[in-house]
Amino acid sequence: MDTIINEPKRVFRDDHLGGEGVDKSIRKLKDLRGIFKDERAFENMDPETLVYEVISYLPVKEGTQGGVYFGVTSIFPGSVGGEYFMTKGHFHAMIDRTEFYWGIKGEGVLILMDEQRRVWAEKMFPGSFHYIPGRVAHRVANTGKELLSFAASWPSDAGHNYEEIARNGFAKRLIDINGVASLI
């Protein structure tokens, strides 16, 4: 009996994704209006500054039950008024959906907030692994001097609720105080 071993789809090499079914989005400073506290510092920066990019492998249509997505986010080093460059942050539209993050390179902090607005954080570094429970908003900040890259996996029906965070923000901010990342 002959056994056939098929080649898997190859979309992930080192910390890069590419190929069929891969989607790339970028966020420049101008796309992050309202998430940094120091609006004056924000206005004095180049709005075209690249803050982060997300490259995702999306093998099924968004909203498909039982599907899984995979992505890599890379956040550039920098800050706005002492507040580290970070992702927008979100709850999932399907609020009970979970997600995994794991560090690939660089240093950062995963900031988490539950529906009661309690905030906590976890350090991110190459090899760190993070379980994000349902009903928890999440964002990541780059606290290092080099690119921070991390991978993620989430259900294809999770969706993103960015509006809640845009409207109310996170209850705490991650600020550089004398070279120390401090959640205040």
TrEMBL record:
What are the alphabetically sorted keywords of the record? Answer: Gluconeogenesis, Glycolysis
Query: Top enzyme class of this protein?
Result: isomerase
Pathway field of the UniProt record reads: Carbohydrate degradation; glycolysis; D-glyceraldehyde 3-phosphate and glycerone phosphate from D-glucose: step 2/4
State any GO BP term from the record: gluconeogenesis
UniProt xrefs under Pfam families: GPI
An annotated GO cellular component of this protein is:
cytoplasm
Q: Does the keyword Metal-binding apply?
A: no
Leader peptide range in chain numbering: none
Q: What is its EC number?
A: 5.3.1.9
Which sequence ranges form a coiled-coil region, renumbered to this chain? Answer: none
Q: Glycoprotein: is it a keyword of this entry?
A: no
Matching entries from CDD domains are given as: cupin_PGI
Chain ranges of the Glucose-6-phosphate isomerase prokaryote domain:
27-178
Q: Which reaction does it catalyse?
A: alpha-D-glucose 6-phosphate = beta-D-fructose 6-phosphate
InterPro entries referenced in this protein's UniProt entry, alphabetically = G6P_isomerase_prok (IPR010551), RmlC-like_jellyroll (IPR014710), RmlC_Cupin_sf (IPR011051)
MF term (GO), any: glucose-6-phosphate isomerase activity
Question: Member of which family?
Answer: Belongs to the archaeal-type GPI family.
Q: What is the name listed in the Swiss-Prot or TrEMBL entry for this protein?
A: glucose-6-phosphate isomerase
Q: Which organism is it from?
A: Arcticibacter tournemirensis
Query: What is the taxonomic lineage of the source species?
Result: Bacteria, Pseudomonadati, Bacteroidota, Sphingobacteriia, Sphingobacteriales
